[in-house]
């Protein structure tokens, strides 16, 4: 695993022949992603795509959370710095497209809170398995920016436009059990079953016919690629919002642990 040892946001190991396990490993901060981590979770899929030793990927996390999203210092940088917003536009596009274009099948195991770039990777995985008690939320509108990242490219396809608008516009959290009910994740299981069920899926993929599985993934992912223009628009609007007053108030309210005041009272 020396080829993956330089990553800081997650550790890599191979618990079964052909299965690369990526474990988000900042449990003390609920596996939030800092500036380096956000870049890493976008870049690693290109490396995996070219790694002949990898036949499937298991994306999981250490501790009680899958990922609490980007840390507040990263959000502050996006608010303050135009160059940071341009950089993030490239990274966020790469995260989505690199996952879609990675030929190796990906399984995600989602526990606890799942937000932000971590949620992007979890929901774009080919098979997403969540603990029934997981807490999934797209927090963009609560932060004062448009739901960009991955939402427009995948939520309407998975759960329908009515459910997508309800959860994204209201920033409504859902459990893993509810996520399975509406079709947002592949499967919801009891918390104690999560690691085993996800690993078994990754092993089955690794032991299956590689070309058949990879070409099936590529074909199905054309549904997401077809939504590319909607995704580009949502991401551009999200990052445009980081330069406005609503994002400043959204961040301030998070830091001060209060209800945001977006000037509508």
UniProtKB/TrEMBL annotation:
InterPro entries: ClpP/crotonase-like_dom_sf (IPR029045), Enoyl-CoA_hyd/isom_CS (IPR018376), Enoyl-CoA_hydra/iso (IPR001753), Enoyl-CoA_hydra_C (IPR014748). PANTHER family: ENOYL-COA HYDRATASE, ENOYL-COA HYDRATASE ECHA15 (ENOYL HYDRASE) (UNSATURATED ACYL-COA HYDRATASE) (CROTONASE)-RELATED. It comes from Paracoccus versutus. GO terms for molecular function: catalytic activity. It comes from the Bacteria. Transmembrane segments: none annotated. This is Enoyl-CoA hydratase. Belongs to the enoyl-CoA hydratase/isomerase family.
């Amino acid at each position: 695993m020396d080829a993956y040892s330089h990553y800081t946001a997650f550790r890599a190991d191979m618990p079964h022949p052909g299965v690369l396990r990526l474990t988000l490993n900042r449990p003390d901060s609920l596996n939030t992603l800092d500036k380096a981590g956000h870049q890493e979770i976008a870049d690693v899929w290109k490396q995996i795509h070219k790694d002949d030793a990898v036949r499937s990927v298991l994306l999981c996390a250490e501790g009680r959370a899958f990922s609490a999203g980007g840390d507040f210092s990263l959000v502050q940088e996006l608010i303050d710095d135009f160059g940071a917003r341009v950089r993030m536009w490239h990274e966020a596009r790469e995260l989505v497209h690199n996952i879609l274009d990675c030929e190796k099948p990906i399984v995600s195991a989602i526990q606890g809170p799942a937000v932000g770039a971590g949620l992007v990777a979890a929901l774009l995985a080919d098979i997403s398995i969540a603990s029934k008690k997981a807490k999934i939320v797209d927090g963009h509108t609560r932060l004062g920016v448009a739901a960009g990242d991955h939402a427009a490219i995948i939520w309407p396809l998975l759960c329908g436009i009515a459910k997508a608008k309800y959860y994204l516009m209201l920033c409504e959290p859902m459990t893993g059990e509810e996520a399975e009910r509406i079709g947002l994740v592949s499967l919801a299981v009891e918390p104690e079953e999560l690691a085993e069920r996800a690993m078994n899926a990754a092993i089955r993929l690794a032991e299956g016919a590689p070309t058949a599985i990879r070409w099936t993934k590529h074909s199905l992912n054309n549904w997401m690629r077809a939504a590319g223009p909607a995704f580009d628009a949502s991401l551009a609007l999200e990052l445009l919002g980081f330069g406005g007053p609503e994002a400043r108030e959204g961040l301030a309210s998070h830091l001060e642990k209060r209800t945001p005041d977006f000037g509508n009272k």
